[in-house]
Amino acid sequence: MNMTNALKTQLIAGLLCMISIGGFAQKGQPFFFIQMTDTQFGFFTDNKSFEKETENFEKAIAAANRLHPAFVIITGDLINKPADQAQLLEYKRIVALLDPSIPIYHVAGNHDVTNDPKQGDIEKYRKELGKDYYTFKHNGMQGIVLNSLYFKSPAGVEKEAAAQEKWLKKQLKTARRSSAAPVLVFQHHSWFLTNPEEKDEYFNIPAATRNKFLALFKQYGVSHVFAGHYHRNAFGKSENMEMVTTGPVGKPLGKDPSGFRIVTVSENKVSHQYYELDSVPQKVLIK
């Protein structure tokens, strides 16, 4: 090999090394995202109108445009009356106001597909809003979106529930093989509100199903589950996994006002804070 070819080889090797290093640096870059939930158009007035939901959601989207998160995810109950076209159109109209450079992810809730969904309800949702379970990635983070109705009320959608479970196990195995971190799950219903041993109720997932999937999440290192449905904030831990239940953009059902959660991811560390819509910071500082 002559000197010219040797120099070219060294330059190419150096460039490839720089690209590789840059790729790893990109993977580890800290970032933040916004979790919204329960926009629930029509809930304030029992489906008579949705002016207040419009006001709140427009305010939330304007704040997201100002802060420019890595992505926005809305964890279910997008509307109040399942498949209502007026509510869906207003939801979609405001979603379209989000800066197109910010990805937005939708999650199915019970008011989107009914409390006891059938196959037709799922198909209607998918036609309007896309897949009801899927994955996405950002800077090394693995996001897993689930349809929690398959855990909460699977009787009318048993084939879909079985398919999601099979798919979920495959995604968790893939995430572990690829060393994805952190692994975050997004769904509408909380597995539990404050205690993994709590009794079954409307706002959590039945204990038999809950225990099965909490064990699966432990096995594959899921660090956080983000949910909504409760229309107020709640927190609990199952060993090393944090269960984060976030208050609504729409109508509150407790002391927590309408707002959303800002979540910061730095390496494997995840921190989060809930903000009232009128108290959102001007910018997010990532340490």
Description:
- Helices cover 37% and strands 20% of the residues.
- Helix 2 runs parallel beside helix 3.
- The chain has a six-stranded mixed β-sheet, with helices on one face. It has a five-stranded mixed β-sheet with strand order 3-2-1-10-11.
- The protein has helices at 3-27, 51-67, 85-95, 110-113, 119-129, 149-152, 158-177, 207-219; strands at residues 31-36, 72-74, 104-106, 134-138, 141-145, 183-186, 222-227, 234-238, 241-245, 259-266, 269-276.
- With 287 residues, it is of the alpha/beta class.
- The longest helix has 25 residues, at 3-27.
- Residues 1-26 have low confidence and may be disordered.
- It has eight helices and eleven strands.
- The termini are far apart.
- It has a single domain, classed as 4-Layer Sandwich (Purple Acid Phosphatase, chain A, domain 2), CATH 3.60.21.
End-to-end Cα distance, whole Å, is: 49 Å
Fill in the CATH topology: Purple Acid Phosphatase, chain A, domain 2
**Strand count:** 11
How many domains? 1
SS summary, helix count:
8
CATH architecture: 4-Layer Sandwich
Would you list the SSEs in sequence order as H and E? Answer: HEHEHEHHEEHHEHEEEEE
The general outline is globular
List its traits:
six-stranded mixed β-sheet; alpha/beta; five-stranded mixed β-sheet; globular; Purple Acid Phosphatase, chain A, domain 2; 37% helix; disordered N terminus; single chain; 287 residues; 11 strands
